[in-house]
């Protein structure tokens, strides 16, 4: 059965960096587009970034452009989210998701990892 496991969350001061990882098992990772979403306290889930199957194309929500970088290593079945110059408003639970049909639908989700940025 497929599994997505996030790691790398934690607490950091504003201006700091974190690198999230999403390890995928039991699924054809190289055949899936991958994305990161986040949910801030008291708010709905928000799209953060997406990367296509080969890693040649990435998309970001405007608030993180220039600060976050999504990447993937198909040999390691792992997707990453490098987060630099973190802001308090980046606080939330970050989850990775897999899109096996490249249709913007994500049937596969991880459990999430907490990111807390103190101002």
Number of strands: 11
Gyration radius from CA atoms, angstroms: 13 Å
> Kindly state the mean pLDDT as a whole number?
97
> Which percent bin holds the helix content?
under 10%
**Anisotropy-based shape:** globular
What would your notes on this structure say?
It contains no helices and 11 strands. 32% of the residues are buried. The model has no long low-confidence stretch (mean pLDDT 97).
Keywords:
119 residues; mainly beta; 7-stranded mixed β-sheet; 4-stranded antiparallel β-sheet; 11 strands
Question: SSE layout and pairings?
Answer:
Blueprint: E1 3-7, E2 10-13, E3 18-25, E4 33-39, E5 45-51, E6 58-60, E7 68-73, E8 78-83, E9 92-99, E10 108-109, E11 113-118
Parallel strand pairs: 2-11
Antiparallel strand pairs: 1-3, 3-8, 4-5, 4-9, 5-6, 7-8, 9-10, 9-11
In short:
This protein is mainly beta and 119 residues long. It contains no helices and 11 strands.
């Amino acid at each position: 059965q497929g599994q997505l496991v996030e790691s790398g969350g934690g607490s950091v001061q504003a201006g700091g960096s974190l690198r999230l990882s999403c390890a995928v098992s039991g699924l054809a990772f190289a055949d899936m587009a991958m994305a990161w979403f986040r949910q801030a306290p008291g708010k709905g889930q928000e799209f953060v970034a997406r990367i296509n199957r080969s890693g040649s194309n990435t998309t970001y929500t405007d608030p993180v452009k220039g600060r976050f970088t999504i990447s993937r290593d198909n040999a390691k079945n792992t997707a990453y989210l490098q987060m630099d110059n973190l802001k308090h408003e980046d606080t939330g639970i970050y989850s990775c998701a897999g899109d096996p049909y490249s249709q913007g639908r994500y049937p596969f989700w991880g459990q999430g990892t907490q990111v807390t940025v103190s101002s």
